[in-house]
Amino acid sequence: MDQLLAALADPERLRLYARIVLDDLPPREEAAPVARRHLGRLVAAGLVERRPDGSLHADPAVFRREHPAELPMAVPRRLTGFFARGRLTSIPVRTAVRHELLVHLTGTFFDEDRSYSEREVNDAFRTVHDDTAALRRYCVSDGLLVRSRDGSHYRRPAAVNA
User: Fold this and answer.
1) Could you write out the DSSP letters of every residue in 24-90?
2) What is the pLDDT of residue 3?
3) By Cβ atoms counted within 10 A, which residue in 30, 53, 90, 102 is the most buried?
4) Other CB atoms within 10 Å distance of the CB of residue 44
5) Residue 153: what pLDDT?
């Protein structure tokens, strides 16, 4: 419950959440950088979810749960020092460690048989870190995500049998 309250402690985030609850948030406002940052925090806290059609949904049942689903994902032991309270505190500088982190994130967030819009990729990465562009770039350069020619969609490459 503390995570929910902390997510709503910011007045701007609280207003955004209220607008989502009231279904009063036009897509153009949802795409604003400030709104996207706050939306990432609301999604990470489990207050808001993005439906497959791209719409946002706030489920009030989250407040009735005795123990809301804990979002901090299971992190490999070697990477735990880079996380605090389920959030990535810094992107590793060492290439091998950063690659291990990116393998973990892409394996956690993305299925191999599905294509994701840039917004979906950003929303997923925003649950752990605010610099979604850097995470996206690193994943593409490491070959963990393949970007479509027009840059509108990303997917995990198919596993190669060696």
Assistant:
1) ---HHHHTSHHHHHHHHHHHHHTSEEE-TTS-EEE-GGGGT-SSPPP-PPP--GGGGGGEETTEE--
2) 65
3) 102
4) 20
5) 93
86's tokens = 């389920």
pLDDT tens for each residue of 41-86? 787 677 888 777 778 888 777 776 544 344 456 788 888 888 877 7
Strand partners, 156: none
User: Whose structure tokens read 């049998």?
Assistant: 161
Q: Which two tokens stand for residue 43?
A: 């999604």
Q: What is the token pair recorded at 147?
A: 């970007």
User: In whole angstroms, what is the distance from residue 136 CA to residue 42 CA?
Assistant: 20
Q: Left (φ > 0), alpha (ψ -120 to 50) or beta: where does 54 sit?
A: left
Q: What is the pLDDT of residues 14-49, one digit of tens each?
A: 899 889 888 888 877 877 877 877 887 787 677 888
